[in-house]
Amino acid sequence: MHHVAILLGPVVASFELGCASELFALSRPEYPHWYQTDIVSFAAGPLVATGGLQLLVPQIADLSRYDTILIPNWSVSEPRPSDALREQLLAAYQRGARLISFCSGAFLLAELGLLKDKAATTHWRYADEFQRRYPDSRYQQNVLYCFDGQIGCSAGSAAALDLGLAVIRRDFGFDIANQVAKRAVISAHRQGGQAQFVAQPMQKKTNLLSATMDWALLHLHQPLAVEQLADKAGMSRRSFDRHFKASTGLSPLQWLLQQRLQLVQHYLEQGQHSLEQIADLTGFGSPLNLRQQFQKQLGISPRQYQRQFSCSPL
């Protein structure tokens, strides 16, 4: 059984707490070995949440029973934790616990020195302040979330859902993460990064791009050239690249690769096809190319992935 602590500070962001609770604290008896989650704090209550809401949660002094510690938010102006909390979080990291931050929660991890030389992100409005205070982290500017070893960070607000679903995908696989997303009526996997949510002019080509992307998803088994997609959208290659990146935060080739890898994960979990067949069905062309891209992008081989998430080994 995987034990999760949702760790709150004295001031709580209600939305991020809601995201954490929906994904990790909601009872899901249909899934064996689902998370056992506690909402806890090292601060004495009542805690103050958005809108003046007061919360009473268990005050604890020990994190040793938890495999994952999730920080929905943290103070940006005063991120320094108490000595007791610092000691417990550092001990948790040393024993291999996973530390997950939503939004401003990254400030707590950075204060502990755990983000030194590691990929990190937070809400775009805090980006400059975060980089000024913690220049030794490898700040990721235009991502919804990032992982580096046992640490994961999400951008602000709704990106908490993206990171949470990514954690569930790692623990329970593609299909269950999709079912969790469906129950929450959210996208199982959003593309792009924070830059797409910063105020910018509306893209006039959005509908054409959307139709082209929908068409591409139905033809992932075929070789797809960017020039072909641009023609489908009625644009020049240069204009297509520019509008695509502005709308998704990714190049067309990066987007195609992500879509194909998600489809590979789905087929691997089904366990009904050989790697050769999966390579054909997903447009990778050969098992060797599939293996190389899968390992490079996901940090695990297709065989290891299927061994973890399917009963039918390759």
Automatic annotation (TrEMBL):
Keywords of the record: DNA-binding, Transcription, Transcription regulation
Presence of the UniProt keyword Transferase in the record: no
The keyword Transcription is annotated on this UniProt entry: yes
Domain HTH araC/xylS-type span(s) in chain numbering: 210-308
Gene Ontology terms, MF aspect: DNA-binding transcription factor activity; sequence-specific DNA binding
Parts forming coiled coils: none
Pfam families from the UniProt entry: DJ-1_PfpI (PF01965), HTH_18 (PF12833)
Name of the protein this chain belongs to: Helix-turn-helix domain-containing protein
